[in-house]
């Protein structure tokens, strides 16, 4: 079984612009559709509420791992943790990494989410499937965001 998701997109925006869209919590919230309580800080929990229609009941919670300026932003979270009656805190979270590389026409953004093999078997395939579709949509969202707000 594949235990990770990888999405790659070339954005027609400089690395510095993409970095800001990823790591400024307000900008991240705009394209990701989450209202975050405060800035991203390595080693700290980021919290907020999903604003995507139909998922407004879902709380956002991620632990920021790394913020290597203009190259890597990463966090861990519990994938597809959407049932408010379930306590996901005992599960091992997955790792989400955003890697940026300068290209001739802008920025290559690679989004990887790994660690699905550690998700409980009864929800592993659904979490993988739902997040795969979610990351496909999020790559379109960030592309639209950086092109409309240079």
Could you outline the blueprint of secondary structure elements for this entry?
Blueprint: E1 4-11, H1 15-23, H2 25-32, E2 34-36, E3 45-50, E4 59-68, E5 72-77, E6 94-103, E7 106-114, H3 121-148
Antiparallel strand pairs: 1-7, 2-3, 3-4, 4-5, 5-6, 6-7
Helix pairs in contact: 1-2
Task: Give a nutshell description of this structure.
This protein is α+β, with helices and mostly antiparallel strands.
Task: Describe the model.
- This protein has 150 residues and is an alpha+beta fold.
- The chain has a single domain (4-148), classed as Alpha-D-Glucose-1,6-Bisphosphate, Chain A, domain 4.
- Helix content is 30%, strand content 35%.
- It contains three helices and seven strands.
- Strands 1-7-6-5-4-3-2 form a seven-stranded antiparallel sheet.
- Helix 1 (15-23) crosses helix 2 (25-32).
- It is globular, with a radius of gyration of 15 Å.
- The chain starts with a strand and ends with a helix.
- The relative contact order is 0.24.
CATH homologous superfamily (4th level) name: START domain
- By secondary-structure content and strand pairing, the structural class works out as alpha+beta
Query: Can you list the strand order of the major beta sheet?
Result: 1-7-6-5-4-3-2
Order of helices and strands: EHHEEEEEEH
End-to-end C-alpha gap: 39 Å
Strands, count: 7
Q: What radius of gyration results from the CA coordinates?
A: 15 Å
Q: β content, as a range?
A: 25-35%
Helix content: 25-40%
CATH architecture: 2-Layer Sandwich
Which CATH top level class fits?
Alpha Beta
Mean pLDDT, to the nearest integer, reads 96
Low-confidence stretches: none
* Overall spatial form: globular
Q: How many structurally independent domains?
A: 1
Question: What's the helix count?
Answer: 3
User: Largest sheet, if any?
Assistant: 7 strands, antiparallel
Which fold does the CATH topology refer to?
Alpha-D-Glucose-1,6-Bisphosphate, Chain A, domain 4
